[in-house]
Amino acid sequence: MAREAGVSVATASRALSPGVRNVRASARDRIMAAADKLGYRPNLTAQATSKGTTRTIAVVVSDIEHPYYSAIAQGVIEGAGPAGLIVTIAGSGYGAEDDLAVVRALRGLSPQMIILTGGGHGASASQDKLTEELRLYEARGGRVVAVGQDDLPFDTVVLGHRSGAAQLAELLAERGYTHPLLLGPATESTNAAEWERGFIEAAKASGIDIRDSDIHRSPITRDGAHALISRLARHGLRDADLIVAASDVMAIGAMTALRESGMEPGEHIGLAGFGNVVGAEDVTPELTTVELNLAAAGAAAVQLGLEAGTRRLRHINAEPILRESTPPRLFAH
């Protein structure tokens, strides 16, 4: 192919490496034309053997159908394009053991970068094993970036679960809500723990006391939240004037359950989600939520992975969005 294009093997190699720019445009055009004529495609396995990694990014997600993870993945894709990197999606579960199994498999595929998007894993033996496996991957030239909370010893894009939930609690208190129920995920998650802590602390500072009995958990899905709120509604929601869910998906499931139980969201009881990732403006009433800027977080993760240096944290701001599902209460102060 180099002979066909009239260039050296080294020049042809540089031109065919995504992201490399130090080849004259005229030479690159000849090389690409020769590659097309000869049907040449880069051998990723050979690249991994010679360089230690391939020009790929592996994004580890707990559930690609969940808008939270798909939004981050889309941001990674957008950030990877200008760098000439190919993105692959690796499905995992919701715990460190699940991520561990996936990372072990990915090490054999030698991606240039692994981006972890799980909700966090807390301190555990499983997390220690995951960290050890990722260190082995790094030793072979790979880069690791986490998106979520600062609980792994790698570059991290920190999301505003705690600050966003705190801001939301303050705004809802100003609107007159006094008896919220929290709807969180059933699985252990650092992201969810930060969301819960941020909301409860800010609510308390605003004069709202949230009891343990006011905190309920379900699978972090539409159906999980629907089943839980249906069950709670059958027994009465006591004096609750607000339901705050850990995700928009859960909030929408709760919205349907409330209607089926004879209560109109936004009228009989306020409802808020979190994440702004599922077209919250398209439901009725429009859903109050918190914008986490997940696509921006995904793109930022790629940039961290491309930059050399000591461990860094990059914070993405969260922005509460008040909509029709949480109108001011008559007794608002």
Commentary on this structure:
The model is unreliable at 43-52 (pLDDT under 50). The protein is elongated and about 80 Å long. By secondary structure, the chain is of the alpha/beta class. The strands form 3 sheets. A 6-stranded parallel beta sheet has the order 2-1-3-4-5-11, with helices on both faces. The protein has a 4-stranded parallel beta sheet with strand order 7-6-8-9. Helices cover 44% and strands 17% of the residues. It contains 12 helices and 12 strands.
Summarize this structure briefly.
This protein has 333 residues and is an alpha/beta fold. The chain has 12 helices and 12 strands. β3, α7 and β4 form a beta-alpha-beta unit.
Task: Output the keywords.
12 strands, 4-stranded parallel beta sheet, elongated, 12 helices, 333 residues, alpha/beta, 6-stranded parallel beta sheet
Global geometry: elongated
Using the CA coordinates, give the radius of gyration.
24 Å
Helix tally equals 12
Largest sheet properties? 6 strands, parallel
Helix amount? 40-55%
Structure class? alpha/beta
| Proportion in β-strands | 15-25%
In sequence order, what are the helices and strands, one letter per element?
HHHHEHEHEHEEHEHEHEHEEHEE
| Distance separating the two termini | 75 Å
Strand order, main sheet: write it out.
2-1-3-4-5-11
Report the uncertain regions: 43-52
Count every beta strand, where a strand is a DSSP E run of 2 or more residues. Answer: 12
Integer average pLDDT: 86
